């Protein structure tokens, strides 16, 4: 939810196409790989790690806890969460987690 809301907020003031793409696929080593991409303002490369720090926010009413909590949820399931440098505009957040029996249905 936080990744989706972040994408919507990142595209709020963008002129032109506003598109969010959510993909989930099976990756190597029995992992599930999920990505949330948007055509918003993007994340400058120098902030790619800082945005995961507690209380880091660029929003007037943000708490800056969203990505910190998202990362800890993913890590508690044995996965990783990161932001990928997208060429051009927008941001792509990705996470992996181990596949479970429920994923094989
Ligand atoms: N999709 C995105 N595109 C561009 N910048 C982003 C995106 N997602 C996150 N960010 C940047 O990372 C910061 C931290 O995000 P995070 O979700 O941790 O907090 P927040 O959205 O500001 O507040 P909240 O705690 O309500 O989620 C944002 O304020 C924004 O600067
Ligand atoms: Mg957020």
Keywords:
Heat Shock Protein 90, 105 residues, binds adenosine-5'-triphosphate, binds magnesium ion, single chain, 2 helices, alpha+beta
Overview of the structural elements:
This protein has a 4-stranded antiparallel sheet with strand order 1-2-4-3. The two termini are 24 Å apart. The radius of gyration is 14 Å and the shape is globular. It is of the alpha+beta class. The protein contains 2 helices and 4 strands. The protein has one domain (2-104): Histidine kinase-like ATPase, C-terminal domain (Heat Shock Protein 90), CATH 3.30.565. Bound molecules: adenosine-5'-triphosphate (ATP) and magnesium ion (MG). The site of magnesium ion has 4 residues, from helix 1.
Strand order of the largest sheet: 1-2-4-3
Distance between the termini: 24 Å
Mean pLDDT: 93
The CATH homologous superfamily name equals Histidine kinase-like ATPase, C-terminal domain
Biggest sheet features = 4 strands, antiparallel
- The CATH topology label is Heat Shock Protein 90
| Small molecules bound in the structure, each named once | adenosine-5'-triphosphate, magnesium ion
Unreliable stretches covering 5 or more consecutive residues: none
**Rounded Rg:** 14 Å
DSSP strand tally: 4
